[in-house]
Amino acid sequence: MVKANVYLVTGGAGFIGSHLVDRLLQLNLGDVILLDNFNDYYSPLIKQRNVSLLKSQYPNKVLDGSFIIIHGSINDQELLQIIFNKYQITHIAHLAALAGVRSSTSQTGKYMEINYNGTQNLLELAASHKTTQFVFASTSSVYGQTDKLPFIETDSCSKPLSPYAATKRAAEMLAHVYNNMHGLNITILRLFNVYGPRGRPDMMPMKLMHASVDKTCIIDVFDDGEIKRDWTYIDDVIDGFINALEQPPVGYEIINIGCGNP
User: Fold this and answer.
1) In angstroms, rounded to a whole number, what is the distance separating the alpha carbons of residues 194 and 199?
2) Catalytic residue IDs
3) Digit-coded pLDDT (tens) for 18-45
4) Which single residue of 95, 180, 207, 262 could bond 137 by disulfide (Cβ 3.0 to 4.6 Å)?
5) How far apart are CA 17 and CA 2, in angstroms?
6) Domain that holds residue 106
């Protein structure tokens, strides 16, 4: 008997995570477990609205148990063990993290606890339960400061410039160890700046839209406004996640998800 696919999406109530959950449910690829701690990095009400929207779009899947929402943390090892034992997870899309370069400079320990230790908790369970695919959402920030464009996956990532980037790079390296030691299939997706519906309020596209209707809104400008960003639309990012989750086993792979045109 072929084992049914069960997808665990950590950080599934957030901007990218909720779009990924939506796509997985649309495609009927298997059962979907949404795990999120609804933290206050930005208003938890935004995540709650994302989840309410998903529940209203897929009421039958909520009723039949093929879409399950769990309020919890990737640092809660007991909860994670229960989830893996009960639902027999086959695919993991790991998006749960503390984001933000500037905020990481004052909360380094917290970023390490969640972005590194939380990832290790998932990797350990994925290895022991022989998970089919582990897709990890990393960041273009791991490349640090460079004038070389576009970034390519083989570029050096040895000099991150923030605790956020360092914790993500450390988690990437730990994932490689689990691939080497346990044969766990790992795909690292290094995301560039993502925009689209339900975008995070701290990201520039949402700030600009807010400023267009609220003339009292103040937008901080850094480096004389000369900074350029590589923006990627949310649907393209979700395409990348689906392709990574559904591809044949690759061992360990790193893929940039961006346009290459800052």
Assistant:
1) 8
2) 164
3) 999 999 999 999 999 999 999 887 788 9
4) 95
5) 27
6) 6-200+231-257
